[in-house]
């Protein structure tokens, strides 16, 4: 997709004061399924109340998650606590562009090839893709952490023996700090600003204690790959940890206020617009044309996106 003329103008204006800028207008490719859990007990029928409520939730979920809520959704269809009520949760990874997350959720909720087709009749399904997370059930689960490790990836580059212990120690200390920071953030994520670079993230429905506990378990379980690999990721269906010896892109969530049952008290601009990112030593924070003017005027932080200058 070619960048718009307004995006090009923004980019050209940025070149006046920054040498490390790039546009991000291309899709990241098809989402990759990392983990899937389909229930086998308590299955539902296509003609039942739960099926109708679930279809209603899933139909609106991609746009609601991204366009209205900025990257997270948890909501219900039906009467909470009553038989046939559907509960759903979706989350965009903070290191994935919102447009790619929306495409991922659209694929996961597709009537022809989505999770309902992959898990026919399963009343509880949870799926982790590299570009989105989706969970639905006929039983309320909001606020309950899923702490079993469901996915682990180890980078190809092994650390030299002489630096393994120092790298591992520094990373573990960083993850402990980041876990606390993510737990205190309404959007439940945090990133490091120095090497070793790390990212931690929880689903927004978790309490502060629940998020920190989930991330703490991952940090402990990740000790093996931390010691010998320069990059890696480990995740549950409720939280994830990523680390790298190199920087990586982060797409901070807009400041939307408190999300309650899939609604917010604020709105954001089109998340699919061409974006310009300012690369800083730790990660590249994504800016849109509205916030870029503030950066040009010397602001250290902006309200819609977290920015450093």
UniProtKB/TrEMBL annotation:
It comes from the Eukaryota. Residues 1-18 form the signal peptide. Residues 32-141, 149-248 form the Gnk2-homologous domain. The keyword Repeat applies. Keywords: Repeat, Signal. The keyword Glycoprotein does not apply. This is Gnk2-homologous domain-containing protein.
